[in-house]
Amino acid sequence: MLKFLRSVGLIVKPFDTGPGEAGEPTRLHKHWKVFTALLSDSAPSFYSAVNDNKGMLLTVILCAAARISGKSIMLHHHSGRYVKTRKTMLSLLVKASGPDALHLVQGERIAQRMRALYSIRHIQPFSNVGLVKPQISAPNRSSRMSLGQLSNLSEAKGIREAIDTLRLCLNNGRDVELILAGPCSDSVATSLLASAKSEFGERFTYMGPLYGEEKNRFFELIDVFLFPSQYAPETQGIVNLEALSYGKPVIGFENPCLPHDLGSDGGLIVKTNEPFAERTLDYVSNFSRTESQKLAKRQFDKLKLEHETQVRRLLAWHGFQTGQQRSASPSDPKR
C-alpha cells in the first residue's frame, strides 16, 4: 500500500508499527511515536492498516489522535473476524475514526456486511489484485493433471482436505498428482505430510517454502490451485489471485471474496458444508486444460480492470488529482 500511495503522488511518512525482532522497540513504543507524530505533524491525511484482535485498541487511539489534529482518515481492513457478527472493538474504531473516514476492504460482500453491522458511511472494495502482476505461464505439458496448494500449511488452511482430494481422485482412477508448498504451521500438517509421502509416492510432492522463481515454477507445474481454507480471519487469499494470473483455475471453500474473485470463469466454489474432495473430483472429471487456463486468465484480467475503477474511486474520495502532491502519515502494522 505504501508503494501505491506514493505512486499516486503522495509524499508519505511511513511508520512501522508491527512486532519487531529482539532488541527493537516494542510495538507499544512504535505506536506512541505515531501518536505523537499525528498530533504534531502537518500532514493532512492518516492511513493505517487495522490491527487485529486486542491490537485494534491501538488503532482506535491513533484514529482519535488523527481526528483531534484534523486529519482525514483512511483505514484498511484485512480480517474477517468482525464481518460475520458485530464486535465491540470494531464499533469503537468506527466511532473513533468518525463518519468521514474511508474504510477499505477486499470485496463488495465485506463492504455490504460491515455497512449493515456498523453503519459505516464511506466503505469501498479495494482488492489485493492490485498487488499481483499479470504472468505469462508456460502450460503444463504433462498428460498427468497436477493439483497444487501453496499456503502456510495447517489443518485450518486445509492440508487434510487437499490430501483427501488426491486420495479420492486416485481411488476413482484419475491420473492426478498433488504438489504442496509452503511452511508447516502446525503438528497436524507435519504429520500429514509424512504420511502422504509414504502413501502416494511419486504422486505426491512437497516443495517446502517457496520464493521468487521457485514460486513461479510451482504455478507453472500445476493445473488447478486448491484453496480448502477455513481459517476464520480469511478475507481474500492473495494466492488465489496469483493462481488466476498464471491462468490456473481455483477450487476453494467459500469465503467473503472468493465468489466474486472466481466469477463464472475462474474455477469452483465449494460451500463450507459440502465435501471438498468430492466436489473437486467432479471438477477434475470434466477438466479441459486449455479452456480452463484461458478462462482463468480472462477472469484475472476482469479483476484488474475492476481494480482500476476502485483506484479512481479512492482518489476521488480523497480529493487527489493526477500529479497533485500531498503528504500522508501511514501506519502499517505487520500482521
Q: What would you say about this model in short?
A:
With 335 residues, this protein is of the alpha/beta class. Helices cover 43% and strands 16% of the residues.
What does this structure look like?
By secondary structure, the protein is α/β, with parallel strands linked by helices. The protein has 2 domains: 2-131 and 305-331, Rossmann fold, CATH 3.40.50; 145-301, Glycogen Phosphorylase B (Rossmann fold). The chain has helices at 2-7, 27-40, 56-68, 88-97, 108-118, 159-171, 187-200, 213-221, 238-245, 258-262, 276-285, 289-318; strands at residues 10-12, 45-49, 72-76, 102-105, 122-125, 145-150, 176-181, 204-206, 224-227, 250-253, 267-270, 326-331. The chain has a 6-stranded parallel beta sheet, with helices on both faces. Strand 3 (72-76), helix 4 (88-97) and strand 4 form a beta-alpha-beta unit. The longest helix has 30 residues, at 289-318. The model is unreliable at 320-326 (pLDDT under 50).
Instruction: Name the helicity range.
Output: 40-55%
User: Which fold name fills CATH's third level, the topology of the largest domain?
Assistant: Rossmann fold
Write the element-wise H/E pattern from the N-terminal end onward: HEHEHEHEHEEHEHEHEHEHEHHE
Number of domains: 2
Helical stretch count? 12
- Which structural class do the helices and strands define? alpha/beta
The 3D shape can be described as elongated
Oligomeric status? single chain
The CATH architecture of the largest domain is: 3-Layer(aba) Sandwich
The CATH class name of the largest domain reads Alpha Beta
